[in-house]
Amino acid sequence: MSARAALTVLGIDPGTASTGYGVVSSRGSELTALCGGVIRTPAREPLERRLGAILDEVDALLDEHAPDAVAVEEIFFGRNVRTAFAVGQARGVVLGAAGRRGIACFAYTPQAVKLSVCGAGGADKQQVQRMVGVLLGLEGPPEPDHAADALAVAICHASQIDGRALGTAPEGVRAAAQNPNV
């Protein structure tokens, strides 16, 4: 193990119904999952309460883990602009929570995250889940997929900061860290 200090990253897969989160510690080529899960908000609640609930949970994660950085998945604009706008609001809550504490935030496109974790920007959700499990030495793929995506975002950022490829993972695993602006 490297003598380098550990880097702790909170990864976020934003959404108003389900916000995935994952905290990863990185020291050299060693990656460790500290926690992962999903913040769920009821669809019947007014948006301001849903965003408030996300803020409360993110605040608690920031307090508990004191990450060095927050990495957030960029919004993918598909056909549903309304959904993209709501996801953007959840993303803003996360950035605001980190900003109040002076924690640097970084954004990665879904393609950059997949490329970093799987070695292919077009990897499917199941492939990302499996690779996250392998890279973190978990017994199986993390569930649910929003948590796996958030852990993948954290892994992507850790690989960018360490300036290393994740190709040192167990045999047969090839995952290269790439520019997050892809």
Features of the shown structure:
about 180 residues, alpha/beta, Nucleotidyltransferase, domain 5, 5-stranded mixed beta sheet, 5 strands, globular, disordered C terminus
Could you explain the architecture of this structure?
By secondary structure, this protein is of the alpha/beta class. The protein is 43% helix and 21% strand. It has five helices and five strands, in the order E-E-E-H-E-H-E-H-H-H. It has helices at residues 47-65, 81-101, 110-118, 125-135, 145-162, and strands at residues 7-13, 18-27, 30-40, 69-73, 104-108. The chain has a five-stranded mixed β-sheet with strand order 3-2-1-4-5, with helices on both faces. The chain is globular.
Span between N and C termini? 30 Å
Question: What's the CATH superfamily, by name?
Answer: Ribonuclease H-like superfamily/Ribonuclease H
Strand content: 15-25%
Number of domains: 1
The 3D shape can be described as globular
Strand sequence of the main sheet, in spatial order? 3-2-1-4-5
Corresponding CATH architecture? 2-Layer Sandwich
H and E string: EEEHEHEHHH
Largest sheet: 5 strands, mixed
DSSP, total strands: 5
Regions with pLDDT < 50 over 5+ consecutive residues?
164-182
Instruction: Assign the structural class, choosing from mainly alpha, mainly beta, alpha/beta, alpha+beta, or little secondary structure.
Output: alpha/beta
**Cα radius of gyration in angstroms:** 15 Å
